[in-house]
Structures are given as C-alpha cells and as structure tokens.
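Recap for those who missed Tuesday's class. We walked through two folding examples back to back. For each one, the amino acid string is listed first and its predicted structure tokens come directly after. Nothing is annotated here on purpose, so try labeling regions yourself before you check the end of the notes.
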Amino acid sequence: IFFAGTPEKKVKHFRVWNQRFLMKGKVKHYKEGKIKSEQNEGFTLLEILITLVIISVGLLSLASLSISVIRANSVANKMTQMTALAQDRLEILRKTSFASLQTGSTSASPPDNININWTVTQPQTNLKQINLTATWNDSTGKTHSLTFGTLIASP
C-alpha cells in the first residue's frame, strides 16, 4: 500500500486505512484523528471493577446489618419469654395466701441461666409489696434484667 504526502500524513492515512480495514467498513466518521464506530460501545474494565467494589461494599454492609437484626430479634424473643415467666411467677405469688408470702427466688440451669428473684415487703399492716426481678445472660454473655412490681392487700 502506497500513501502519498508528508510522513505525518502518511501515518495519519495509514491509521485511517488500518481502522477501516479492521472494522470491516463500520466507520461512522473520522474527526481529528479519532475514529468512532459502532464497536466503541460497552464498558471498560475499570468501570466494571469500580462497580464491583461499590456492590461489594453495599452487600457487606447489608450482611452486617442482617447480623445486627438477628441479634436484636434474639434478645427481643428472650425478653418476651422472660416477661411471660415473670408474669407466671407473679400470678403464683398472687394466689399464695397473704400470711405465707415470703421473699424467694428460682433459677434455671444453663444454657438459659435464668434467675427470678422476688422480695416481699410490708409497707402497711394490711398491704404487701412484691418486687420481682428476672435476669438472664444472652449468647454474648451480656446480662439482661426485667423488673416487675405489684401490691397485694389482705382479704
């Protein structure tokens, strides 16, 4: 192939011819040394890598969020169970005769490590106050507690 003109023009013409040959006639237009074609569409490797990094950060944050939600649900579930146990114990104490109400406690063995303690005080001669505290340890070893109180009058 022979190109006429100065060396710069020869290089320029060769590049154009080479691009036209390689792209099999899909050249749309030629402007200032740049050839635009239908084949210049798509994503670069850098764009794909940046997108993957952004998606990875988002997915990792969602994973840590889901772990936090699971832990919070576990604590809420245990708190609901403890509330039910404490209310059951208060009902048992309410059914006990006024004269035999005494301070006491009950506990469950591991893995729950549940302790329910109650104190009975008599602020007036015909009135007893019961304060009940339920404590337990969660899976991380953190201690949680709930406190309930009630008054019972003599019949």
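Example two. Treat it independently of the first, because the proteins are unrelated.
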Amino acid sequence: AQRQVEVAPWRSDPMVAFLPPGWEAPERIAPEWLAQRALIATRSGTQMHRLTAAWFGQAGLQPRVRVELGFPVAIKGLVAAGYGAAVLPLERADDTALHAKMQWRHLDPPLVRHMGLVHRHLELLDRATREVLGVLEEFSESAMGAQADSYAIEK
C-alpha cells in the first residue's frame, strides 16, 4: 500500500531562555538556575511545553510556572515587562523590536524544536495548497541558510 502522506523535515529552531532586561544571568542557562526564577510557559499540551518540561525533567526538576499562555508573542511581552523568564524557540522571523526589550541566552544543555511538513502527495494537491507549501518552503531551514546560522550563534 502506498503512503497517503509525505513527511519532510522543515525547520529546527534552537530553544533559548528569554529573560527580563534587568536580570543578571550566566552566559548559558542551566535548568537548575532557571527553575529558581519566575517562569512563564506555553500552555500545557503543546509541543513546546512538552519539550521544556522534558528539559527540566532531565535535570530532575519540575519547576512551578507562574502563568501559562498560548501565544509566544504574549509570553515575550510579559518577559519584557519583567514578569518572568520563558523558554521559547529563537525564530529568525521574530520581532527584533521586542527582543531589544529583553535578553536571551542559549540553554545548557541545548534544546531544539524540530518541525516538519505533512501533506498529501504533491500530485494530489490543488494549486492553492501547492502555493502554500511553496511559501512555507521559503521559511524552511534550507532556504534560510546562512541567515539562520548567524542569528542562532549571535550570542
């Protein structure tokens, strides 16, 4: 039987700690350090929540979260306002004006969010869906190339 869908790697974004502007923080953020701070998290049940919980869990930690939200931009707004820290993906299309209002640091150990595209075979897709896949490809890791590498290692 022929597979009905295609699955292709799309992007891998490093997860980083976003921190309020006034916090003094080490160069790299360990789970033990972050677990002792006020935390803002993505809503439970999401991929990012599971990734973050597993990152803390590997260190034997289950930190208490101050607030859970479903929108990373809202979370970053709370971080910029000094309400707490968050672990979120460092995306190349992020709002740099918002990033200027907070700090970010790489995690130690590192954590990466992998994403893929799942769709029916191309020949079975209508034109509009193929167009959407084409636009998504423009934001793929391979299309972003050097820009992604330079942004991710900026710190």
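Answers for example two:
The first helix runs from residue 31 to 35.
The chain has six helices and six strands.
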